[in-house]
Give the backbone structure.
Amino acid sequence: MNAMYAVQFDFPGGRETLSYREAIEPILGTGEVMIGFEASSINPADVKISSGRIAPRAGTSPFTLGWDLVGIVDKVAPDVDTFRVGDRVIGMSTMASTGRGTWSQLVALPATSLALAPAGIEPTVLAQLPLAGLTALKAVDELGPIPDQAVLVVGAAGAVGSCVVQLLARLGVEVHALVRTHAQGDALASVGPVSAVYTGEAPASSFGAIIDAAGIDAAYALRPGGTYVTCVPGTLPESVGANGAIGVTVIVPESGTNLATLLGYLADGSLNLGEPSVFRLSDIATALMAFENRLGRRTVLTS
């Protein structure tokens, strides 16, 4: 087997246990595409996995981190006819479920998890989309029929939350936002139309639908019979379910089809991603420190 480099850890312990090291090239399976790494982003899930708060449910040590991926097709399995060598693609690996990370010079993913990347958008911008965008899309879908009343988005200034705000706005939904700081509230002006911004706490019993993108208990703001969607597994408030309320935890599948939908929104301008802070994959320690101290910007890794 050929050698390459990847960001891996043998046991959890935070960024101190991560290293950019020589690793074994993945084996291309049936229905899969081998992708040469161009860019990925750092997500809170990466920090949770490396620290041991989340344990991968498949695979064995050493584990490669990373969920998002933009890269160039290096080879395809014989049964794959949707992509060709040289195509730029975008995809997501559900690392916590599969144990297969994307912070690697070569990554093998199912063809069904990928979409063709559009020309004219930099890989560093596209790399912010997969996990955050797919999570937001699934959260909005979980609301069911488009509500004719305001929806509260908790953590609206974050990666997932800002996508939720924009996806709701493109559907004509009145969006209210809950953020931690006034600076985050000010930053929402560049995200999309928000009717009201609350700092620290939202009005009690005021919303028929809430999407929590930050894992913060805002059930106090839900009306009886409302719908509460959390994007952070394990954070659905116990109080949801009382008074006929519906509680949903978002489980995000790999989906090239859904990524293509999100790319369409990028193309028509109804979804926008900001300019990130960019670091080399080999400089993962510095990148993670920047992520932990981030001020409104995504942290992206490049080859």
